[in-house]
What does this fold into?
Amino acid sequence: MPDLPWTTPTAPHPDAEVHVMASRFETATLLGAVRFFLKAPGIIKQLRTAPGAHGAALRARVLGRTFVTLSAWADPEALHRFARAEPHRTSARAAAAHTKEAVFTYWTAPASALPIGWDEAERRLAEERSRRATGHGHGHGQSH
It folds into this structure.
């Protein structure tokens, strides 16, 4: 399944610092993965008009039951407003019932670094999973 490429709802000021979030979800079943994927169009539509959204992309591996999201925001509150709004709020709650594992990581980056690449997102998510596995708590790394 192809990636949904980086889209930029609102370009940040070139000198701005953006707040980046990467997430990785693994569903317990293939049916859960299909349900997760079917929610994506509504959430992408929501994101395109979300205040403070500076970019987002989705890597969907439905047959592998894994999804990676990548997004950039004006500030953490813009991300939180998006997550609490519909349809994301209801979709996220529904997806939780089918989720085997979820990993989130956050960092800041200069706007000039956008779009963030998949390699960077995957590296940071792997670091977060490793921190969890070794009991070193939640990683909310704030590095550039």
In short: The longest strand covers residues 99-110. Residues 139-144 have pLDDT under 50 and may be disordered. Residues 30-48 form the longest helix (19 residues).
